[in-house]
Specification:
GO terms for molecular function: hydrolase activity. The chain is of the alpha/beta class and 245 residues long. Helices cover 24% and strands 29% of the residues. The protein contains five helices and 15 strands.
Length: 245
């Protein structure tokens, strides 16, 4: 199985333009035969809590149909970030597209404290089961909550996929934390982060992958969009970047 983490620069609050950029990178990882691809936290809007309520939608938004088509046609599972809204609340969510299946909305269960005035925590834990792997998605601050990793381990996860916004001030601690998650839980661990600016943060990039011993085995730079693909069978790592202008 080939799993891709995509490093991304978002345009503030512009779902249509961000969607166009998503499609470019999805097609790139499809070209390299990826089976799964994940983007950073709230990737379709950028990490913009002040705009989240006005931008919030749901998994059935017809603008997302083009992602479902790519999933169906290329047998790839895709996770993108989006604020969603239920009857009363706005949530930090990941919409997961699987080939020829109903979409899944996974919402962040453990919120970064400043988010609590804007968002509500999700209630449903999730792992994604494939033929050879079990993937546990995590949204940013969830990586700091021990209960999230414990659920992954209890449910036989083999891969931990963190979709984050991490700033240049927080990247060292985040990478140390993810290395520890990989080592302590024997999980292949990946991180998808932003480059550029979002939500007032200068984003650090450095999207990465750690092996089950917690060793860093692949990493992107701090300025470029791009992807890392990891082949769980051959252990091959494929990277590609595009300089931001």
């Amino acid at each position: 199985m080939r799993i891709a983490t995509i490093q991304f620069e978002a345009i503030k609050g512009n779902i249509e333009k961000n969607l166009k950029n998503h499609l470019k990178w999805i097609k790139e990882v499809i070209r390299h035969q990826a089976d799964i691809a994940f983007f950073p936290e709230l990737s379709l809007t950028g990490y913009e809590p002040d705009l989240a309520e006005s931008l919030a939608t749901n998994q059935d938004d017809t603008r997302l149909d083009v992602i479902q088509s790519l999933s169906d046609e290329n047998n790839i599972t895709i996770g993108v970030g989006l604020p969603t809204k239920n009857e009363r609340d706005v949530l930090v969510s990941m919409i997961i597209f699987q080939p020829h299946k109903e979409r899944i909305t996974y919402s962040k269960q453990y919120l970064y404290p400043p988010e609590e005035s804007t968002f509500k925590a999700g209630k449903n834990s999730l792992v994604l089961k494939f033929k050879t792997e079990v993937v546990s998605p995590a949204i940013c601050y969830e990586t700091k909550n021990k209960a999230h990793c414990e659920f992954a381990k209890r449910n036989n996860a083999t891969i931990y996929m963190a979709s984050v916004l991490c700033s240049i001030n927080g990247i060292d601690d985040e990478q140390k934390k993810l290395s520890g998650i990989a080592r302590d839980n024997q999980l292949i661990t990946l991180m998808a982060n932003y480059v550029g600016t979002s939500g007032g943060y200068e984003c650090a990039g450095k999207s990465a992958i750690w092996n089950k011993d917690g060793e860093l085995i692949g990493q992107l730079g701090d300025k470029d969009e791009g992807f890392i693909i990891y082949d769980t069978k051959s252990k091959e790592i494929i990277t590609s970047t595009a300089t931001i202008h």
